[in-house]
Amino acid sequence: MRACLLSLLLIAAAPALAETHDDHVAEAEGLRVLHAWTPATAKGADALVYMEVENTSAAEVMLTGGEAEGAALELVGFSYGAAGEAWTVLPGLPIPARADVDLEPKVLALRWSSVPMDLVPGAELEIEVEVGGHHLHAHVEIGAAGATGHSHAGHNH
Amino acid sequence: MLDLWASLPPALQDVLFALALIAPGLLAGALVLRGLRPLPLVGAMLRRFAFVNALFVALIAVSVGLGVGLLAQERGLRQGSARSAEKFDLIVAAPGSEVTVMLAAVYLQPSDMALVTGAQYAEIAAAEGVAFAAPIAFGDSYQGAPVVGTTVDFVTHLAGPLAEGRVFSAAEEAVAGAYAPVDVGGSFTPAHGHGPAAEHEAHEGFAYAVTGRMAPTGSPWDRALLVPVEGVWAVHGLANGHAPDDPRIGPPFVPEMMPGTPAVLVHATELWGNYALKSRFTRGDLMAFFPGTVLAQLHALMRDVRSAMSLMAVLTQVLVTLSVLIGLMILVRLIARSLALLRAIGAPLRFVFAVVWAYSAALILSGATLGLALGWGAARGISAVITARTDVLVTANLGWPEAHLVAGFISLTLFMALLPAWLAVRRPLLTDLRT
What we know:
The structure holds 2 protein chains of 2 kinds. By secondary structure, chain A is mainly β. Chain A is built from 1 helix and 11 strands. Chain A has one domain (2-143): Immunoglobulin-like (Sandwich). Chain A has one helix at 2-22, and strands spanning 25-28, 31-39, 47-55, 61-68, 71-81, 84-89, 93-95, 99-103, 108-112, 124-131, 134-143. Chain A has a 7-stranded mixed beta barrel with strand order 2-3-9-5-4-10-11. Chain A starts with a helix and ends in a 14-residue tail after the last strand. Chain B has helices spanning 2-7, 10-33, 39-48, 50-85, 98-105, 118-126, 152-159, 229-235, 271-281, 291-301, 303-334, 336-344, 349-390, 400-416, 418-425, 429-434, and strands at residues 90-93, 130-142, 145-150, 164-165, 173-176, 187-188, 191-192, 208-213, 225-228, 263-268, 287-289. Chain B is 56% helix and 12% strand. Chain B folds into 2 domains: 11-83 and 302-434, no CATH class; 90-289, no CATH class. In chain B, helix 2 packs parallel to helix 14. In chain B, strands 1, 2, 3, 4, 5, 6, 7, 8, 9, 10 and 11 form an 11-stranded mixed sheet that branches.
């Protein structure tokens, strides 16, 4: 009886689990965006969105930026010197065939300038990532202000 | 309101923040002194108790100086270490610790590391978007100065045009860092290893002739001796990266004839190329990283320490000022008869209050000003010691954080100075006149 109930529970929970799992992945024509996340950001500040971008296709593709709530997301690269930290807008980043790129803190990010609302921990955003001429719709997990990675970073999808 | 604040230039934000910090203290002073002229009396009090006043001022100055010096020093060290890493765009090495490789390649603190092979180097150098890939091969030294094998491209990239002489053009030539212990025209035989355990006779019979000197870079490379990487390989009895009958130095190297290098500095033709190359060479058999990123992460970790330091500095200052104010209260008891006489001849209570407050304020302001100067001097002195010990050029100057610290301190303590003034006017007049 207990085994039956457990099985029923597992079957009932399966779609929810799959949905949560799939929320971490956006896919199209050999391109995948995984584990998109951003730290909690106050309204008016710049938000930096991080993710993994995989190109499993046979051709090199260009990651150019994205869009969120109608606003452009710029691809930016990090630098650090005597003047402090700086993010510079990049025209694009080639992702070779069958390779991947990690947008990670203090390296690369998509920047959403002057966010129009508070990005609160635990909530999610929907963004489009422009890569290889495709607009991949990705769910962005909003982590704590001091977060350093996605809650599922390192998981295989 | 927040949007307006964010839209202001950083310099204006700093000025406004400093004004906001000091305004309450100044406002209190303006209210206390309004319509009164207590300064001649205050001047007399300062002269009468000159020794005690000097002691109070010195106490405040030391506490302010410590806080200011610590903050300026920490920032100077952070900026100096970041400046040293600016030229190191992207480092590729065998998988391991990024911090270890950064310390070795950027700050010349060598450690045992796996090598990037000839084939891997060839792949890196030939990658699309690579302007140059310079081997950084360390392990030898001369009179404590690191001897580093590299290429002409790296020398030019690191320090620009040479300050003196010419760059090396043969395996037995070298370029000296700005403060390296060998002059142009001199020669040296490297020791194998570093420090007391270095083997000075290991490379006996081999000598590098110094042909040029780099301009100062403000980094540990100013003490280094840069030689062709072929020289480092040859002196260790290894193949020199070229065919036996090839006298050239510098890339391209023959992969099979290249013994390997602990690290490779990669400079891309375009800015975005660095990020693409980092992704490309972050893989199982290689590690690619930006020293700037590693350093920024380390500095971010130290941010909490910095906050604790700032808090401790403020607390120290407040504690010292509290003790000074307690001292002032005792002093007020000593001059109670004079103050009582003042009241007896018709001076209003507000005037007596203003005299005592202005007297305290004079000590606080003098101490804070002297403290700023002390802090600046201390920061400069400590910077010179750190620069001498680490070869990282640390220049600690006073900036807005120190100005904010002192402004906040002055404001708070000017408020605290209201207490002895209030206690002075609360004293019983007749009792004080009889003492």
